[in-house]
Specification:
By secondary structure, the protein is an all-alpha fold. The chain has one domain. The chain is built from 3 helices and no strands. Helix 1 crosses helix 2. The longest helix is centred in the C-terminal third of the chain and has 23 residues. It starts with a helix and ends with a helix.
């Protein structure tokens, strides 16, 4: 449970750093994402989640 909490906090830290260092790029990326079809975003999200689980499994395994 502690690992999950640390992972969530690290995600917040990484996002915060991205927005702090490159706010214009972040806005540009959000505009581009808003133009994509929901199905494309769903597939991309699932793919990223699967890759993340695989990496965690390899590291922890």
């Amino acid at each position: 449970m502690q690992d999950l909490l640390v992972a969530c906090i690290m995600a917040l830290v990484i996002e915060g750093i991205y927005y702090a260092l490159a706010p214009q790029k972040a806005q540009e990326a959000m505009r581009m994402l808003a133009q994509l079809e929901p199905a494309v975003l769903r597939r991309a999200g699932l793919l990223i989640a699967i890759i993340g689980v695989m990496i965690i499994t390899m590291i922890k395994g």
